[in-house]
Write a structure and sequence with these properties.
The chain has three helices and 14 strands. It has helices spanning 71-82, 154-175, 216-235, and strands at residues 2-4, 14-15, 23-26, 30-43, 50-61, 89-94, 101-106, 112-118, 124-125, 143-149, 151-152, 188-189, 193-198, 207-208. Strands 1, 2, 3, 4, 5, 6, 7, 8, 10 and 13 form a ten-stranded mixed beta sheet that branches. A two-stranded antiparallel sheet has the order 9-12. By secondary structure, it is of the alpha+beta class. The longest helix has 22 residues, at 154-175.
Length: 241
């Protein structure tokens, strides 16, 4: 596993070590992840979410006082200002400082995995417990951009998201992160988001139908997600118990 803790403050792109042409650039107020060709995407992003075809993802910083009545319109306006095509760009919002970005990659025979995470846990929460809920959107706190250079079925893509979320939850448990309201071990935060992108490259000999923790690909996903969550939170001063 290859890990890069943080991106430099300049606009020089980080070039993926396992996916030729995949680049990550830190702009003034967002991270821009660009693919060399269109990719299949499954995501919970505020713009471009669901199943779609994309070639870039923007993880946009907003401060914690961001007025979030119309986040979709806010993201679209920014994309228009930056010249990003609305139909092929996924957009995330985060109140986490971009300096806390972590990148991890793994190369394999049947798939290569790239993960970029920005993480904060000020609103840690435990799924399944009684707590306050809110009807309106808030900026994502743990944002995961997970790119897989491989051939995958849609079912395997859903399985990959499940595995990524399990790895995120494991990282929070190992860090001792608690639900801010009830003190129980947090499974995430109230505003997490994920974008999964898959190349569907014909250069790989097999098509992945499963992506759980018992598969080589699922294990790689778990490692890069777990590692980047731990590292991003470590940059913010959160350490293991």
């Amino acid at each position: 596993m290859m890990t890069t803790p943080f991106l430099n403050g300049d606009n020089n792109p980080y070039n993926s070590l396992v996916w030729p042409g995949l680049t990550l650039t830190r702009q003034e107020r967002h991270l821009l992840l660009q693919s060399p060709s269109p990719i299949d995407s499954l995501s919970s992003s505020i713009h471009g979410g669901g199943m779609s075809k994309i070639d870039r993802i923007a993880n946009i910083y907003v401060d914690r006082f961001y007025e979030c009545s119309h986040p979709e319109k806010d993201v679209e306006k920014l994309f228009q200002e930056w010249g990003y095509p609305l139909e092929s760009t996924a957009g995330l919002l985060t109140a986490v400082r971009l300096a806390y970005t972590s990148v991890s990659e793994e190369d394999g025979e049947d798939a290569s995995v790239f993960c970029c995470t920005t993480a904060g846990v000020s609103n840690g929460a435990r799924a399944g417990s009684e707590r306050t809920t809110f009807p309106v959107y808030q900026p994502g706190t743990i944002n995961i951009m997970l790119m897989i250079d491989a051939r995958m079925t849609q079912a395997a893509m859903v399985n990959a998201v499940i595995t990524a979320v399990e790895a995120k939850t494991a990282a929070l448990a190992d860090l001792g992160i608690r639900d801010a309201e009830n003190g129980l071990v947090a499974t995430g935060t109230t505003t997490d988001a994920i974008v999964l992108g898959v190349s569907q490259s014909a250069t790989y000999p097999i098509q992945h139908r499963y992506c759980g923790t018992a598969t080589d690909l699922g294990a790689a996903i778990g490692r890069v997600v777990y590692g980047t969550v731990i590292e991003s939170l470590g940059a913010a001063g959160v350490s293991k118990l």
